[in-house]
Design brief:
This protein is an alpha+beta fold and about 325 residues long. About 30% of the residues lie in helices and about 30% in strands. It has 2 domains: about 130 residues, no CATH class; about 130 residues, Phosphoenolpyruvate Carboxykinase, domain 3. The strands form 3 sheets. It has a 9-stranded mixed beta sheet with strand order 1-2-3-9-8-7-6-5-4, sandwiched between helices. Strands 13-11-12-17-19-18 form a 6-stranded mixed beta sheet, sandwiched between helices. A 4-stranded antiparallel beta sheet has the order 10-14-15-16. The N and C termini lie far apart (about 45 Å).
C-alpha cells in the first residue's frame, strides 16, 4: 500500500496498520497513476520487524550490554542508555519497550539530491504499548509524525498549522494562509471561501511552505475537497491569523515583530518534535549533527524560514466573536 502524506513524502506500509496522523490521513490509498505523479523527497518504509530477521535478532544482543555505556559491533560503535541503543556511526536507533517483545527500529539515510530514506521496523506489541496513555513515548503515529515534520524542515518544507485557499481574481490568483489555535475557525473560514467564485481549497489543517520557491504543499487530510490530487501552488500572498475574542470583529495589519511572535506561538502549540524521545535518541551520537540534521539547526532553520516568509507577505490579525463573517473580511482585504 502506497500512502502519500503530502506532495513530497511517501509512506509504504507492509504488515503494519497505522491510524490517522496529524500531517495526513494514512488510510488514504492512492491509485497507480497518482503514484507516478509524485517523486518523493522523503521515502518511508514501515514493516513488521519479523520480516527483517537479522535486525530482529540484534535486539537480544544490543540489550545484553550494560544499561549505560558504549560497545562495539561490526566495526560500529553503539551507545546504550537504558531502553535506547543508538549507532554512533549512522542515524540508526533501537528501542525496546516494556511489554514482552515490544520493539521499534528506525534508520534515517540521506541519499543526496534532497532525498531521504527512512526505514521503520516495529510490531503489534510496540504499537499497542505506544498507544497506551501511560507511555512516555506517545502513540507510534505521533512518533512518526514528529520525525516527518522534523525531516520536512530539513528539506526546506516548513510545516504550518494552517488552512489554505486560492482566491481567483481578475488579475491573478491570490493564495492565502489561515492560522489559529485549534477550534478557532480556520478550516471553516477556508472552506467557506473555497466555495465562492470557484476558489480552490488547498489545505485543511496542515500545509508545508517552501520559502525559497514560495510554494504551498497540501497534506492529505480528512476534509480535503478532492483526494485524487495533492494541490501544490506557487506563490503566497497573504497570511491571516485568526483569534476568537468576545468583542466585535476587526482586522488589523500586523508589523513583522508581532506577526513573528504570534505565528511562532501558534506553531509551537501544535508541533512538539523537541519532546520526541526517539528523535532525542538519534541526536545522542552527533552523527546527525554532521549532516546538519540536529535539533538546534532544524529549529533555527524553522524560525528563520517563517521570519523570511513574513518579510515577503502581508500578515493580518482577524479577531472577534462573529466567526461566520470572517470570510467576508478576508474578501474585503
Amino acid at each position: 500500500m502506497q500512502v502519500f502524506i503530502n506532495g513530497f513524502t511517501r509512506i509504504k506500509l507492509e504488515g503494519i496498520d497505522l491510524l490517522r496522523m496529524q500531517i495526513g490521513d494514512v488510510n488514504y490509498k492512492n491509485s497507480n497513476d497518482f503514484d507516478e505523479k509524485v517523486d518523493p523527497e522523503i521515502d518511508v518504509l514501515i514493516k513488521d520487524i519479523k520480516s527483517e530477521n537479522e535486525i530482529n535478532k540484534l535486539f537480544d544482543f544490543m540489550y545484553s550490554k550494560e544499561r549505560q555505556g558504549y560497545f562495539e559491533y561490526k566495526e560500529d560503535i553503539y551507545y546504550r542508555d537504558c531502553n535506547i541503543v543508538a549507532n554512533t556511526c549512522s542515524s540508526e536507533i533501537f528501542y525496546r519497550g516494556k511489554l514482552p517483545n515490544s520493539k521499534l527500529y528506525v534508520k534515517i539515510t540521506p541519499l543526496g539530491n534532497k532525498k531521504i530514506q527512512m526505514k521503520v521496523l516495529t510490531n503489534k506489541s510496540f504499537i499497542m504499548e505506544s498507544r497506551s496513555r501511560f507511555t512516555k513515548l506517545g502513540a507510534i503515529e505521533d512518533i512518526l509524525n514528529d520525525i516527518l515534520l522534523f525531516l520536512s524542515v530539513y528539506q526546506g518544507k516548513i510545516p504550518m498549522h494552517c488552512s489554505a485557499v486560492q482566491q481567483l481574481s481578475d488579475d491573478k490568483p491570490v493564495n492565502c494562509l489561515f492560522m489559529g489555535l485549534p477550534n478557532t475557525g480556520k478550516t471553516t473560514t477556508a472552506v467557506k471561501l473555497s466555495k465562492k467564485k470557484n476558489n480552490k481549497f488547498i489545505a485543511e489543517d496542515i500545509a508545508f511552505v517552501d520559502v525559497d520557491t514560495m510554494t504551498i504543499y497540501s497534506a492529505i487530510y480528512t476534509s480535503n475537497v478532492d483526494k485524487s490530487e495533492l494541490p501544490v501552488v506557487q506563490g503566497i500572498d497573504k497570511l491571516f491569523l485568526l483569534a476568537f475574542k468576545k468583542s466585535d470583529n476587526k482586522i488589523e495589519k500586523l508589523d513583522k515583530n508581532n506577526a513573528v511572535k504570534m505565528l511562532g506561538n501558534m506553531n509551537l502549540y501544535e508541533f512538539n518534535w523537541d519532546k520526541n524521545l526517539i528523535l532525542k535518541g538519534l541526536m545522542i551520537t552527533g552523527y546527525m549533527n554532521n549532516l546538519g540534521m540536529n535539533q538546534f539547526d532544524i529549529n533555527k532553520r524553522y524560525n528563520e524560514s517563517y521570519e523570511r516568509l513574513l518579510n515577503e507577505i502581508d500578515c493580518y490579525l482577524i479577531s472577534g466573536n462573529e466567526r461566520e463573517k470572517w470570510p467576508e473580511i478576508v474578501e474585503s482585504c
